[in-house]
Amino acid sequence: MRETISVLEEAFRELVSGKAVMPTRISIPLPQKSGWIGIMPAYLEGLNAFSTKIVTVYGGNLSRGLPTTMATVVLNDSETGKMLSIMDGSYVTALRTGGLGGLAAKYLSREDSHVVGIFGAGVQARTQLIALAEVRNVTRVKVYDPLIERARSFAEEMHHMLAVPVEVCSTNNEAVIGADIVVTVSTSKAPLFNGRLLVPGMHINAFGNFKPDERELDTETIKRSRITVDFTEASLSEAGDLIIPINEGAISRSQITAGLGEIVVGSKVGRSSSEEITLFKSVGLGIQDCAVASVAYERAIVLGVGTEIDLG
C-alpha cells in the first residue's frame, strides 16, 4: 500500500504537469440489469505506462455470490503498442482506490486524526482502511454496513490486520459521531448521514458513488465542506454528490477549491485550518489504474510470476 500511495502521488504530479493523457471515461449504463460498464484509457509519460481498464459495477452481484465491482486491465508497451499484460483489475481497482484515499487523507486530514468511521464493508473498505493506517495513526475504527454479518467479518479481519479496535455500528449516525475521518465506500443511492453531524476539523473521503443522479452525501455536508476532487471535469460530469447540490443552487462550481494534483504539487492549499471540514470526492481516474498496473507488471516480471500467453 505504501508503494501504491507513492506511485499515485507521482501520477497526480504528471496529471498537473501535462505529462498524462486521460480521455474522459466512457460510461455505459445498464439500468435494466442494475449494472454499469466503464472504459478508462490512460497514458503516463513519466512512468512510461499505457493502460485501458474495463470496469463493471452490478448492484445485484452480492446475491449472486459475486463482487459488486469487477474489472480487467490491459497494459500496453507505450513504445510499440504491443500488449504486455492482461490482469484482473478488481484488486488493482481496490488497491488504487484505497491508496487514493490514503493520499487524500495525507494532504487534507488533520495530522492528529485517529478515529475512522467507514460506510461499507467490502473489499474497497478494507484497502481504504489499510491506506489510512499508512498515513495516520489510526487507533479506532467504526464501521456501518446494512449487511450486519459483512460488517462483523470486516471488523474481525481488520482488527487482526491492523491491531486496532473495530466497532460495528448499529446505526449510520454512530459511524460519524466521534470520527476524525469519515469514509464512504457504499453502493447507496441516497445520502448516508446527516451533514449536521459533522464537527469542525473532520475530513471526509467520498468514493462510493460516481453517478450524476445518485449520491452518498447530503447537501448539508457539501455546503459545510472545503471540497477537493480528483479531477474537476470528471467530477462535474459524474459526481452526483456535487452535481445535485449545484443543480439545487445550494453551491456553485467555485466551491470546488482544488484538484488533488494541485495540492500535491503545492500550487493550492488543501486544508487552511484545523477547524475546517474538508472533503475529497473521487469518481476514479484512468491514471490511477495505469500507475498501479504498471508497478504490478514490473513486480511480476521481477518475481517471475504470471502466465505467458501467445495470441498468435
What does this structure look like?
This protein has 312 residues and is of the alpha/beta class. The protein folds into two domains: 108 residues, 2-Layer Sandwich (ornithine cyclodeaminase, domain 1); 176 residues, NAD(P)-binding Rossmann-like Domain (Rossmann fold), CATH 3.40.50. Helices cover 37% and strands 24% of the residues. The protein has ten helices and 14 strands. The strands form two sheets. It has an eight-stranded parallel β-sheet. Strands 1, 2, 3, 4, 5 and 6 form a six-stranded antiparallel β-sheet that branches. Helix 2 packs parallel to helix 3. The radius of gyration is 19 Å and the shape is globular. It starts with a helix and ends in a 9-residue tail after the last helix.
Strand order of the largest sheet: 9-8-7-10-11-14-12-13
CATH class of the largest domain equals: Alpha Beta
Tally of individual helices: 10
* Cα Rg: 19 Å
Q: Average pLDDT across residues?
A: 94
The CATH architecture of the largest domain: 3-Layer(aba) Sandwich
Q: Kindly estimate the percentage of residues that lie in beta strands according to DSSP.
A: 15-25%
What does the main sheet amount to?
Answer: 8 strands, parallel
